[in-house]
Structure formats: C-alpha cells, structure tokens
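Figure 3 (text version): structure tokens given as input.
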C-alpha cells in the first residue's frame, strides 16, 4: 500500500510560483456525479440562491504562510504548499474552520493544500466535510490545479468547480474530464493581460470551462479590471476579490487601498449579471490575514448591497 509520505513526496510541482514565472514579474524569480443539466449548471454559480451580500467566501489559500508564522516569500509558494499538506490534520482543519466562522464567513473556497489528493482519502474527506458542517461552512470552490485527482476530491466534498490552472491539459481534454465528473473548471488569470488572452487558455470557454477573475492579478498586470470583466461577460463564473499595492508586483493589501479597483470590479460584476460567489483572497507575506478577514468581508458585503 502506498503510504501518505510517499504520496506527499510525489505531489505535483505546479502552483503559484509557476504562474509568477509565466507572469514575468521581475521581483519574483518563480511562483501561483452525472452531467449537470443546464439549469443545474446555472445554479452552481448562483451562490445558493441567497442575497448578494451573503455570497462572500473565505479562500483558505489566504493561510499559505500559517505554517511559517505568517512569514514567507511568494517565490517559495510550493514549499509552503508542501508544508501545509503535511501540517493539515483533522485538528488543524477544525481550527481553520473555526477561525473562518469566527470572522463571520459561512462559505469557504478550499485551497488544494488543505485537501490535497496526495493526503486525502475518501474516509478522511468525509471527516473534513463533517468538520465543515459542524462549523456552518459551505464548500463552494476548490482552489487548485485541474486533474482527475482534484476532481475526485471535489466529488467527495461536494464542491462544484475547480478554480486555478490547467497544468498540461488542453481545453478539449479539460472539457472531457469535467464532463465525466460533472464538475466545472474556471481558469484563474495570472500572467494574462487581456480578456482575449484569458479566454484563449480555455479555447474560448464553454459550458464546462469558464473564468475565475482574480482582481489582484489584473491589477498586477496593469489590466483595467472592470473593462476585462465586461469583456469576459458570462464566462465569469467565479471570482477572487483581491487588492495589490502597485502594478508590476503582487504585494497584497486591504481591499480598496490598492490599485486593483476592487470596488469598480464588483460594480462591473453586478452590471454583467454575475450571480456567483465573491471569494476574498489575500496571501500576505508578512502578516496574518485573519486580522483583517472580518473587515474585508464587510467591505465586500457593503458594495454588494450598494
């Protein structure tokens, strides 16, 4: 039988460091069920039918620096990824869920390192899902790379889509895989500098392949976020609401205090009729994001109500 340590040792070496490398940021040497009916596919992006102001989720990738005392370098993302896999047992997962709930969130986007195929078995996934239920948290997305193994985890946890990178999968192969599992995939923009370039990564998009707009990375690349969102239109099926300090870098900051025009992006999302989740994302290198979690949740909620 393959041991957990063997599975961890063979974990894929693809993550946000690869995105940063592709993005060409000078400051970073390397970084990032049966088929559903059309009605069900629409429903998977409608945030459970609640009020817009309640469709705010916590992305657990925010806690990438948790295992190193909230100090790390973005270029070492995959080191943190591996350490997080090793450190996340049931007690650690329960503590994370408790903190997220205490910050007022009722939904969570699960980072791959917190529910990794290299560490999670189906019985363990049932335990993770039970902890989510005890905490009053709905799992609404999976932040990671599209592959058969991550789709299996999504099936176990009841998650409707993967949001991240395609890895080596071509759009046709990705579509077939998603259709097989009945689970969608949304490409998260990182190096791309236009809506056309983002859609090009998924072959123009289809009913299974869409876009997860990361407002912070649009800011990093100097792309006007509201314009990109309007151009992407109905292909926007998930969001990562983030702000960054300056174009050309990816130092994150409080929503509304950077250059990503997060408020304008939310207005554009409302204008195109987006009815999905707003997943707050902030992966600071030098602070605990939980300290600002409630503030940023309220910031998003206020703009959704406006």
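Below: residues designed for each position.
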């Amino acid at each position: 039988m393959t041991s957990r340590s063997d599975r961890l040792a063979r974990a894929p070496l693809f993550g946000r460091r690869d995105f940063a490398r592709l993005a060409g940021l000078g400051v970073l040497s390397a970084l990032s069920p049966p088929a559903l009916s059309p009605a069900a596919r629409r429903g998977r992006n409608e945030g459970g039918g609640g009020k817009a102001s309640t469709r705010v989720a916590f992305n657990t990738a925010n806690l990438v620096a948790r295992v190193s005392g909230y100090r790390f370098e973005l270029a070492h993302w995959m080191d943190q990824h591996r350490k997080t896999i090793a450190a996340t047992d049931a007690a650690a997962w329960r503590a994370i869920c408790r903190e997220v709930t205490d910050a007022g969130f009722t939904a969570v986007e699960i980072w791959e390192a917190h529910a990794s195929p290299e560490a999670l078995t189906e019985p363990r996934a049932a335990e993770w899902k039970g902890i989510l239920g005890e905490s009053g948290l709905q799992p609404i997305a999976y932040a990671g790379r599209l592959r058969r193994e991550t789709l299996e985890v999504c099936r176990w946890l009841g998650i409707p889509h993967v949001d991240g990178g395609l890895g080596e999968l071509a759009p046709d192969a990705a579509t077939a895989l998603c259709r097989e599992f009945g689970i969608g995939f949304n490409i998260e923009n990182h190096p791309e500098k236009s809506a056309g370039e983002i859609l090009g990564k998924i072959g123009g998009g289809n009913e299974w392949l869409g876009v997860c707009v990361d407002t912070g990375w649009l800011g990093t690349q100097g792309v006007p976020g509201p314009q990109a969102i309007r151009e992407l239109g109905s292909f926007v099926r998930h969001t990562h609401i983030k702000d960054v300090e300056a174009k050309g870098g990816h130092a994150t900051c409080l929503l509304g205090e950077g250059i990503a025009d997060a408020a304008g992006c939310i207005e554009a999302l409302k204008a195109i009729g987006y009815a999905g989740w707003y997943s707050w994302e902030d992966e600071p290198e030098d602070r605990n994001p939980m300290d600002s979690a409630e503030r940023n949740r309220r910031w998003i909620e206020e703009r959704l109500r406006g």
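The mean pLDDT is 88.
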